[in-house]
Amino acid sequence: MARLYDSRKRILVTGGAGFLGSHLIDKLLAQGHDILCADNLFTGTKRNLEHLHNHPRFEFLRHDVTFPLYVEVDEIYNLACPASPVHYQHDPVQTTKTSVHGAINMLGLAKRLKCRIFQASTSEVYGDPSVHPQREDYWGNVNPVGPRSCYDEGKRCAETLFFDYCRQFGLAIKVARIFNTYGPRMHPADGRVVSNFLIQALKGEPITVYGDGSQTRSFCYVDDLVDGIVKVMESPDGFTGPVNLGNPDEFTIRELADRVIAETKSRSKIETRPLPCDDPKQRQPDISLAKSALGWWPKVPLEEGLKETIGYFRALLAAETRAKGE
Ligand SMILES: NC(=O)c1ccc[n+]([C@@H]2O[C@H](COP(=O)([O-])OP(=O)(O)OC[C@H]3O[C@@H](n4cnc5c(N)ncnc54)[C@H](O)[C@@H]3O)[C@@H](O)[C@H]2O)c1
After folding, report:
1. Is residue 5 annotated as a catalytic residue, yes or no?
2. What burial class does residue 137 get, using C-beta atoms within 10 Å of its C-beta: 0-12 exposed, 13-18 middle, 19+ buried?
3. pLDDT tens figures, 185-223
4. What is the distance in A from the centroid of ligand 1 to the CA of 78?
5. CA 232 – ligand 1 centroid, Å
6. 317, CA 20 to 30 Å: which among 26, 109, 110, 296?
7. pLDDT per residue as tens digits for the range 295-316
8. Active-site choice (126, 151, 182, 221)
9. Is 85 in the pocket of ligand 1 (CB under 6 A)?
């Protein structure tokens, strides 16, 4: 039930102990809202929320979204889901359950509360795209039976559920397709390209490039992405998405490796490895819709975002070294 006595919202963020979720919570708290974070800590960590210990408007609930949740809130951001291939392939059945049962449970909650609900979808719904850059009206090229399918198809099914709840029950849904994002609080062992390269460079280990490194990616800094997520949630009634959120500046993986080496002043050398199964060759968002409908586009250049992220990983590695010495 909506509160009558103040305009501050009670907001549920699932997956809030993760990389994106914890930054989203910081932003929503800064806007003055009350936050309930529900997370099973599968890939997230309490360290990401440490600074909110004793915050009067923040509450943490250890909860798995594959089970129903009965709480009273005014808005729901559904981010719970492991996002990196090493994590989502660790228990693929649980990954599909998290996307599909998690969506059903959160949509059921939103239906009962008659509240807005945001879904963190992904550029992976486009699979290995045959059109470039990807617009929202491209239906994708996804392998339904490969090792990445638990994530890709789980997220596609979640989108279907969101749109069916909207059509069937008139639910106010907001769906964003998030492209590669990086920044502080990324999991250091998540196997994603930015964290991999940064850790390798900072440790002076070889930088492992899969394939010949000519495959391209676009990288969005987390602050830009979180601004976009909130803009999607605050968009006018009737705007459902799906809308792409990402940075269209495209780099080859090789270029990224070179920049990381330069920014960290590392002596690491580049080593090549075979390309993993179903690895997309190109990925670049078309963000025309986000620009026209939301007035959103990314502002932080790669060098600036890398500097912040390098600072975070340097501090993390130093803390690990200190802990080993104690
Ligand atoms: N980071 C990116 O580049 C990116 C790109 C596309 C989409 N996304 C989506 O954004 C969301 C957040 O991604 P992230 O990068 O912060 O990943 P993350 O792994 O850091 O965070 C995911 C969070 O969800 C939690 N979680 C996982 N399964 C759960 C379950 N069953 N119940 C409750 N909590 C659960 C984890 O413990 C973690 O805290 C995900 O839905 C992901 O698919 C992220």
Report:
1. no
2. exposed
3. 999 888 889 999 999 999 999 999 999 999 888 899 999
4. 9
5. 18
6. 26
7. 999 999 999 999 999 999 999 9
8. 151
9. no
